Amino acid sequence: MEPKYTSFDKSAKTCLRQQVITEDLSWAHYQNAGERLYYQNDTQHTLSMYLDGGYETHRTDIKADYGAPSKFCLMPQGCQSHWQLGQPQQFMHLYFSDEHLKKLAVRVFDKDPRQVRLPELTFVDNPRLEALFRHQVAGLNWQTSDNHLMMEQITDTVLVTLLQSSGFNLSVGPIKGGLAPKVAKAIKEFIYCHSHRQIYLSELAEIAQLSEYHFCRMFKCQFAMTPQEYLLQVRIEKVKQSLSHSRQSLTDIALNNGFANQSHMGRYFKKLSGMSPGEYQKHHQGR
Q: Which residues of 187-225 are buried (b: 16+ CB within 10 A; e: fewer)?
């Protein structure tokens, strides 16, 4: 008779704390024991580290070692795994979207997002990630607004470390499409220099010497986002610089960076950073 498995989402686990950073990033700290369960997440990737226990926990769908404190599991979006849990254990999950990971790869490494392929990993060691999980994230009070920005920054450091250790080490074969390197560079420079005003798609397509339709397809292949999303990202980064170093009013910062008004800026700023411009400014200028 086949053993009965419970979905991780419906298991008897205890969620000790959780924190949503943005719509693409969140953390959870769990405790669980003595269950047979399966894990599947079709909407995001999951990076998990055991904080305590796990010695009797193992996967039943593949041949793998047993768990232990500081062991990592990486469960890419769409994969499924079956588990037998032993004695009480505590572990943290970092949930992150594929879109966020690819945008991060573009921004930090200037890599083609199609090169990002996360492997499925079970009970591996990674001292750099462990230090971030155990000494940076686990030790923070997740609920205070003062720590929200710090958690966002640490989370991106975790993902950059993950990409360095696994994301670009996989062969993905020849990559076709996208923009030529010189064209991509020219487009980025144009957007950065003119982000304070409305940028027309026809302007960008003319630089690339492509039709607007073809340019949009090639741009998204290259940057894992649309031209409008890229422009918004540049504007938000410039707003962050102004909030950190300028004494301008929020209204002036909004208008100087291409937003219609302060409310318009605030809506997109909170969506991308998880906090309001005022909270961000208070944190940086109050240090």
A: bbeebeeebeeebeeeebbebbebeeeebbebbbbbbbb
Share of the chain above pLDDT 90, in %: 71
What whole-number distance in Å separates Cα of residue 169 and Cα of residue 117? 9
Q: State yes or no: pLDDT of 1 exceeds 50.
A: no
Residue among 114, 126, 115, 113 at smallest CA distance from 47:
126
Which residues lie across from 38 on neighbouring strands?
Answer: 7, 82
Write down the pLDDT at residue 160: 93
Q: How many CA atoms lie within 13 Å of 248's alpha carbon, on the beta-carbon side?
A: 18
Residue 52 to residue 90: CA distance in whole angstroms: 5
6-7/36-40 β-pairing: parallel
Q: DSSP code of 42? A: S
Q: Which of 206, 68, 76 shows the shortest CA–CA distance to 125? A: 68
| Token pair 């940086």: residue | 284
Cα–Cα distance for residue pair 66/229, rounded to 1 Å:
43
Q: Are 37 and 83 in contact (CB under 8 A)?
A: yes
Measure the N-to-C terminal CA separation of the chain; round to a whole number of Å: 62
C-alpha dist (Å) from residue 166 to 99, 143, 181, 191, 276: 17, 31, 24, 31, 33
* Cβ-contact 106, 156 below 8 angstroms: no
